[in-house]
Amino acid sequence: MEVKAKGISVYDRNSELRLFDDSKVGVKGLVDSGISKIPRIFVHDYQVKKLEQKSNCKNSQFNVPIVDFDRIYEDKARRYEIVERIRDACENWGFFQVINHDIPLSIMNQMIDGVRGFHEQKSEMKKQYYSRDVTKGFIYNSNFDLYQAPAANWRDTISCVMAPNPPDHIDLPPICRDIYFEYSTYMMKFGHTLFELLSEALGLDSSHLENMGCTEGLFVLGHYYPACPEPELTYGTSNHSDSGFLTVLIQDHVGGLQILHENKWIDVPPTNGSLVVNIADLLQLITNDKFTSVNHRVLAKKIGPRMSVASFFRTHFREGAASKVYGPIKELLSEENPQIYQEITTRDYLTHYYNKGLDGTSALSRFKIH
């Protein structure tokens, strides 16, 4: 929005942000209106050069590790091999893909369809869920950090706290209600397995991370990335690392996810039936940097929409468990590996993360011991 000041046009960013937010139609509403240029609030001026370079990533020599969970419960030698693969991926990549897990492909597809179904409803149906109140169980909005980030991202999102205190069944939209609950049940089971393996990869008892409460919370986000008329000027999701302990992602066939590896942006192409797993900030904190929370992003594209579902293993603001204190695991510390981070609560971390927004910097730096 342009306003006049002494005859000079001045861009009023805050007014444009409020107009977009108050419309409650999200990015999809902009696309449905037939725009050919993206609003200025979505233009990442400060990163134009980086955006110009994004299509020139020389990443063909790198592939995100794939871990096959086949026979993980039946074969001890096989389980040891899987743990070693996970340890290497967590220390050197911060990302890996899992195949032959126990979540049926039909359930994954239904979850993606549920996300599509919600976002492609009529606006009047969606608006009743539009909110920026982070204490609500289920919300729909565009850009959780709309007013904090340097520029908005080209996506809309639904989010729901599914554990430890899931919402009442009736509080979720009918179009995705049943699959949200069913998918979350499978995801919690998968999460317990992952945290057992991560504990073993750290040289700890298999129940160590679960006993710390790492599997207690589940926050499930359904992202919708509409086709963008000017993808060279914006991102689907800008450069960031994740909040929480661990994120498990399913994505549709469109692609666009990239991770930062050895100072290069590496594509994570969709693989039918696979789960993308990444270390998040709180797991890096409690492992005292042994496991790495890696920056990643999603490119905006002329083709779309793209759908993805991100399951964050962490408690949320309203949960009593968010006041639990976490610090580096004592068993991992030594004179050669002294404590790097303060002890903090999940709520402390999330408050800082949400106030900072996705600005490309690490939220962990604030909590380092200097």
Automatic annotation (TrEMBL):
Pfam hit, one: 2OG-FeII_Oxy
Protein name according to UniProt: 1-aminocyclopropane-1-carboxylate oxidase homolog 1-like
Zinc-finger among keywords: no
Entry superkingdom: Eukaryota
Organism: Olea europaea subsp. europaea
Stored InterPro entries: DIOX_N, IPNS-like_FE2OG_OXY, IPNS-like_sf, Oxoglu/Fe-dep_dioxygenase_dom
GO MF annotation list: 2-oxoglutarate-dependent dioxygenase activity; L-ascorbic acid binding; metal ion binding
Recorded family membership: Belongs to the iron/ascorbate-dependent oxidoreductase family.
Keywords, comma-separated and alphabetical: Iron, Metal-binding, Oxidoreductase, Vitamin C
BP-aspect Gene Ontology terms: coumarin biosynthetic process; response to molecule of fungal origin
Transmembrane segments: none
Domain Fe2OG dioxygenase: 214-317
